[in-house]
């Protein structure tokens, strides 16, 4: 069975920090199309702190590491994203409490716990044009697969997030700041969904997994 070590998980988080920091302006510009234009800066502010603290974060257990990252998110990620991303890391950390490595089943459970927490915290439903429109199909795909080939899983979940960009593009946002502009949010991609898809696509590139993206936002 495939397992991930704490150092491998920390490595993936470090790649995520680089993605978020590199896309600060792009994510804020996307958010500015229908929202208040703070998404990229909110996220990057927090992930700069995570990047700086990651080398010295407690790695005695996966849960302890993720709970520490959750605290940094809650404290340093601004806007509505702080509680959402903080809750995601906190629930994933609680689901992996005490583990020193993570099986594929456990990883799937952690993603499910993060998703459930984010739904409870943000109150969004599927189709409300938020990042859960990417996270739900990602979690379903993980449940369908056996995890014997993590590269295949990564390509498959990246495809789900990629599809979610175009499937939700013409929807009107019902949650978050974008909902306040109503119809103006139709025909713009959701920055949270693009954020998830961009992180996963960068993981593909970093780990040498072939993936040909469809959405324009991943083909820049
Ligand atoms: Mg915003």
TrEMBL record:
It comes from the Bacteria. InterPro entries: DhaK_L_YcgS, DhaL_dom, DhaL_dom_sf, Dihydroxyacetone_Kinase. The keyword Transcription regulation does not apply. One of its GO terms (molecular function) is phosphoenolpyruvate-glycerone phosphotransferase activity. Keywords: Kinase, Transferase. Its EC number is 2.7.1.121. Residues 7-205 form the DhaL domain. NCBIfam families: dha_L_ycgS. This is Dihydroxyacetone kinase subunit DhaL.
